[in-house]
Amino acid sequence: MAEGGDAGAPPIHLWVRRVGVYCDERRKTWLVAVEEEAGTLRARIQRVRVPLGEALRPSQLPPSQLPHMWQLSEGEQYRDSNSRIWEIQHHLMIGGVEELLLRLMPSD
User: Fold this and answer.
1) 3-state class (DSSP) for residue 48
2) So what's the pLDDT on residue 55?
3) Of 70, 85, 96, 105, which sits 20 to 30 A from 42 (CA to CA)?
4) To 10 degrees, the CA torsion angle through 66, 81, 84, 100?
5) How many of the other CB atoms lie within 10 Å of CB of 43?
6) Contact assessment for residue 47 and residue 29, using Cβ atoms and an 8 Å cutoff
């Protein structure tokens, strides 16, 4: 198992740039992969430097289980552009890569 360490504060905002690539408020790029297990949706988000290129408008993106934006809210969670809540399962440095693992909370 990879050793985890302190990754500092998580990003406040993550906006989609193109499929699988998000950008935070500091213009850092994050790669996002969807994981689904037993009906639970997770987003594995890793800070990886990739060229920003042109951002796509939401209407130009194919349908996705992922939101167009996440915003850090109180507690260990994000609220997405669809008003859904995502719990931060972990925020670590793994092998020198900053990683967030978010889990979509069930809606009421």
Assistant:
1) coil
2) 84
3) 96
4) 60
5) 24
6) yes
Q: What are phi and psi of 71, to 5 degrees?
A: -130, 130
Does pTM top 0.70 for this prediction?
yes
Q: Are the C-beta atoms of 44 and 32 separated by less than 8 Å?
A: yes
Q: Which CATH architecture has domain 4-104?
A: Beta Barrel (2.40)
How many angstroms separate the CA atoms of 51 and 8, rounded?
23
The answer to whether 36 touches 42, Cβ cutoff 8 Å, is: yes
Q: What is the pLDDT of residue 2?
A: 41
Instruction: Look up tokens 């809540």; give the residue.
Output: 85
Count CB atoms within 10 A of the CB of residue 88.
16
Give residue limits of the domains in the chain.
4-104
DSSP-derived letter for residue 55 is P
Contact 58, 66 (CB under 8 A): no
